Amino acid sequence: MEKGKNGKYSVKSVYKICVSEISNNSHMHVHGRWNLIWKLKMPPKIKNFLWRVCCGCFLTRDHLSSRGVSCPLDCVQCSNIYEDSIHILIECPKVQVWRDANLWDTIDSVLRQDYNIHALVFTFLQNFPLGHCELMATIM
């Protein structure tokens, strides 16, 4: 069993042991530098939103359907046949702001490499100036 940093058991260390032994939560691990989200100089509400998007907790029709909720999969805004995080936050024709903010070319190049929303967010956080990251997070 794993003890805490001070050599004693804590609620946190025992919780980690229980979670790792009782359930298989490997599907919940998203690789990325999570600390970069919390280091942004933005309201906590926006940082929490980014965290939810990256964790896969952002509710879209695709996400609801995968959880067994019976709902149509098409986008409410544009009637595209598939509403997922990338579509609703980035690609929906109703979201025209990315070109106006001069971020579309960068977003498009990242999505061509790895087409998922958490890869987009973490690539931005790791490779672009803080101002660009804060602008992207605010627009999302």
Short structural description:
The protein has 140 residues and is mostly helical.
Q: What do you see in this structure?
A:
By secondary structure, the chain is mainly α. It folds into 2 domains: 1-30, no CATH class; 32-139, no CATH class. The protein is built from 9 helices and no strands. It has helices at residues 11-22, 35-39, 44-55, 61-66, 85-91, 97-100, 104-113, 117-127, 130-139. Helix 3 crosses helix 8 (117-127). The mean pLDDT is 83.
Range of strand content = under 5%
Count of alpha and pi helical runs: 9
Which structural class should the secondary elements be placed in? mainly alpha
Cα-to-Cα separation, first versus last residue: 42 Å
Q: Biggest sheet: strands, sense, closure?
A: none
Number of strands: 0
Summary keywords:
55% helix; mainly alpha; 140 residues; globular; single chain
Layout of SSEs?
Layout (H helix, E strand, L loop, with lengths): L10 H12 L12 H5 L4 H12 L5 H6 L18 H7 L5 H4 L3 H10 L3 H11 L2 H10 L1
